[in-house]
C-alpha cells in the first residue's frame, strides 16, 4: 500500500512517500553512502518499499530523488540487527519508528535535506501515535542527531556491518500510549 503524503518545502523541493518507481534511485543512493557491509541489499530495499511505505519518505529536488529515510514501526525502543534483514508491515499505532537508513545523495548534501526528512518522519510518528523515533549512528553523527532533537542513549548492542553504533532516540511528547490511541 502506497500513501500519497506530499509536503511542499518550496517550489522545487518536495517530501513524499516512496513509490515503486523510486527503487533504482534508492539503491543508488544507498550504495553511494554506505559501505558494502552496512548497505542494505537491493532486495531488502525493495521489501521495505513494498511493506513499510507509510514510514518510507523521499525528498525530491527539481524532480530528482535526492534522498530518503526509512524504518519500520517496532515495539523495541532501540534498533536491533534483525531489522536490517527482514521487515514486516507496520502496526497501526504504538512503538517506535526505527530508522534503518537516512541517506542523501552526495550531490545534495549540506542543504538540510536530512533534517527535513527527520522532521517529516517525526510528524508521521505523531500522526501514527508512535512513542518516538529511534536509530543507531556512528559516533561522528551523534551531534547531528542531537541537533535534530534526538538523545544519545549510549553505545548500542547493534554490531551491524561490524561497526560500533550509538542509540539515539527522539521522544514523541504527544504520544498517548498504545491503549489510549483513538
Automatic annotation (TrEMBL):
Molecular functions (GO terms): N-acetyltransferase activity
UniProt keyword annotations, A-Z: Acyltransferase, Transferase
Domain N-acetyltransferase: residue ranges: 13-171
UniProt-listed PANTHER family: SEROTONIN N-ACETYLTRANSFERASE (PTHR10908:SF0)
Protein's recorded name: GNAT family acetyltransferase
Source organism of this protein record: Streptococcus massiliensis
Amino acid at each position: 500500500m502506497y500513501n500519497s503524503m506530499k509536503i511542499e518545502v518550496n517550489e522545487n523541493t518536495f517530501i513524499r512517500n516512496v513509490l515503486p518507481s523510486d527503487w533504482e534511485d534508492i539503491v543508488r543512493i544507498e550504495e553511494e553512502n554506505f559501505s558494502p557491509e552496512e548497505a542494505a541489499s537491493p532486495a531488502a530495499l525493495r521489501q521495505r518499499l513494498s511493506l513499510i511505505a507509510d514510514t518510507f519518505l523521499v525528498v525530491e529536488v527539481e524532480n530528482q530523488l535526492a534522498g530518503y529515510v526509512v524504518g519500520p514501526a517496532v515495539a523495541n525502543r532501540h534498533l536491533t540487527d534483525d531489522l536490517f534483514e527482514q521487515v514486516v508491515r507496520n502496526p497501526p499505532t504504538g512503538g517506535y519508528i526505527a530508522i534503518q537508513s537516512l541517506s542523501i545523495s552526495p550531490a545534495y548534501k549540506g542543504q538540510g535535506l536530512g533534517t527535513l526528512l527527520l522532521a517529516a518522519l517525526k510528524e508521521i510518528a505523531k500522526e501514527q501515535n508512535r512513542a518516538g523515533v529511534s536509530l543507531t549512528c556512528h559516533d561522528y553523527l551523534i551531534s547531528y542527531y542531537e541537533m535534530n532533537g534526538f538523545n544519545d542513549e549510549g553505545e548500542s548492542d547493534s554490531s551491524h556491518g561490524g561497526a560500533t553504533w550509538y542509540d539515539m532516540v527522539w521522544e514523541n511528547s504527544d504520544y498517548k500510549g498504545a491503549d489510549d490511541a483513538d
